[in-house]
């Protein structure tokens, strides 16, 4: 079954509203959800699932689809969407020069409004968006991911006077939502902040048996399609910069919580927080995990925590990380770090401090306070 070259405001190929959908063995390509006369629609380049609906998708492919929200799929309004054995490649969330609505969210999927999505044995590559190169999830929604691969996706840096951009190369989590990420890999993705995952607004990330490797926080994220549909004096354009951003693998902020259990954070690169970047009362707990060979040009090779953050690491390895200061951790502005029963070796810095504590921050290291 093939769905190709379709166009609509919502769900260019399939529209599901207060109904149930089941699709097997389908190919979705070159579908577009966009209407420059009726913003802010343009949801679900291929499929739209809304208003208490249920969707089931198996053994299918998505490629070269476009939308303002969810280049492949939009799920909202207390709906359920279950995806298994599906490939998503070369899909893109389109940006407009609309000063009132932030567009370009979710290079594959946009999830909102108390909805739930399950992704099992999926592959996502070369997808891109303003935020959430693969998934943008908000508004008390839930995303459960198992046995999936995310590679070479990007959250693209946009020069926009009113709206932020470039966050969450794979997943952007906000609005008290929750993501469970199990037995998966997140590699070679890019974003300005959080090249793997960007977690904010009291949301939760629970990662287990998962690898974050070779991701880079950078402004060099490529380009997005930008459509002019509003007053021409409001200019929006792609950014041409090569400098680094923060949070090579994971970025946590705004009282959000991240739990890492048997997770490998390896060979990621950023300006600060090459492994994990934390800000504004964020909390992270890592157990039986590895923070190895991460490289920060400035501060925090493995972890950077700023502004009343709480970071707990136990029974883990923090080794062979590099930074100008704090290759193991850079803890600033009344933040707290606890390291217990961890292997710490081969870390290197310019200033010679493997752990850097600044501005009222504290550390509990193997039974002693600093």
Mean pLDDT: 95
For the largest beta-sheet, the strand count, sense and barrel status come to:
23 strands, mixed
User: In oligomeric terms, what are we looking at?
Assistant: single chain
Residue share in helix: under 10%
The overall strand count is 51
Our Rg estimate from Cα atoms comes to 20 Å
Description:
This protein is an all-beta fold and 370 residues long. It has one domain. Helices cover 0% and strands 49% of the residues.
Outline the fold blueprint.
Layout: E1 2-4, E2 7-8, E3 14-17, E4 20-24, E5 27-29, E6 32-33, E7 47-50, E8 54-63, E9 66-67, E10 73-76, E11 80-89, E12 92-93, E13 95-96, E14 109-111, E15 116-120, E16 123-125, E17 128-129, E18 135-137, E19 142-146, E20 149-151, E21 154-155, E22 158-159, E23 171-173, E24 178-182, E25 185-187, E26 190-191, E27 197-199, E28 204-208, E29 211-213, E30 216-217, E31 226-227, E32 237-238, E33 250-252, E34 257-261, E35 264-266, E36 269-270, E37 276-279, E38 283-287, E39 290-292, E40 295-299, E41 303-306, E42 310-314, E43 317-319, E44 322-325, E45 329-332, E46 336-340, E47 343-345, E48 348-349, E49 355-357, E50 362-365, E51 368-369
Parallel strand pairs: 1-5, 2-6, 3-7, 4-8, 5-8, 6-9, 7-10, 8-11, 9-12, 10-14, 11-15, 11-16, 13-31, 14-18, 15-19, 16-20, 17-21, 18-23, 19-24, 20-25, 23-27, 24-28, 25-29, 26-30, 27-33, 28-34, 29-35, 33-37, 34-38, 35-39, 36-40, 37-41, 38-42, 39-43, 40-44, 41-45, 42-46, 43-47, 44-48, 45-49, ...
Antiparallel strand pairs: 22-32, 50-51
């Amino acid at each position: 079954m093939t769905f190709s070259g379709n166009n609509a405001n919502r769900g260019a190929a399939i529209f599901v509203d207060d109904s149930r959908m089941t699709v097997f063995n389908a190919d979705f390509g070159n579908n577009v959800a966009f209407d420059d006369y009726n913003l802010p629609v343009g949801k679900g380049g291929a499929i739209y699932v809304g208003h208490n609906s249920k969707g089931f998708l198996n053994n299918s492919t998505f490629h070269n689809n476009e939308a303002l929200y969810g280049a492949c799929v939009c799920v909202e309004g207390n709906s359920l969407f279950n995806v298994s054995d599906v490939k998503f490649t070369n899909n893109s969330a389109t940006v407009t020069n609309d000063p009132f609505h932030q567009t370009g969210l979710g290079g594959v999927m946009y999830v909102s409004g108390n909805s739930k999505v399950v992704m099992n044995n999926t592959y996502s590559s070369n997808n891109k968006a303003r935020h959430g190169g693969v998934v943008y999830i908000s508004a008390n929604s839930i995303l459960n991911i198992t046995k999936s691969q995310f590679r070479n996706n990007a959250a693209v840096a946009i020069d926009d006077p009113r709206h932020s951009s470039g966050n969450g190369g794979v997943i952007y989590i906000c609005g008290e939502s929750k993501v469970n990420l199990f037995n998966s890999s997140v590699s070679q993705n890019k974003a300005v902040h959080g090249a793997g995952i960007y977690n904010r607004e009291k949301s939760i990330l629970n990662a287990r048996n998962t690898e974050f490797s070779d991701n880079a926080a950078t402004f060099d994220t490529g380009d997005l399609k930008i459509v002019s549909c509003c007053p021409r004096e409001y200019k929006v354009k792609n950014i041409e910069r090569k400098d680094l951003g923060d949070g090579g693998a994971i970025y946590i902020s705004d009282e959000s919580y991240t739990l890492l259990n048997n997770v490998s954070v390896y060979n990621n690169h950023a300006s600060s927080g090459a492994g994990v970047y934390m800000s504004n009362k964020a909390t992270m707990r890592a157990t039986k995990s590895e923070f190895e060979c991460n490289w920060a040009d400035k501060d925090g090779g493995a972890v950077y925590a700023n502004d009343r953050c709480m970071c707990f690491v136990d029974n883990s390895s923090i080794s062979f990380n590099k930074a100008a200061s704090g290759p193991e951790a850079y803890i600033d502005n009344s933040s707290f770090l606890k390291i217990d029963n961890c292997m710490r070796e081969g870390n290197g810095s310019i200033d010679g401090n493997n752990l850097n504590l600044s501005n009222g921050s504290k550390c509990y290291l193997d039974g002693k306070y600093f």
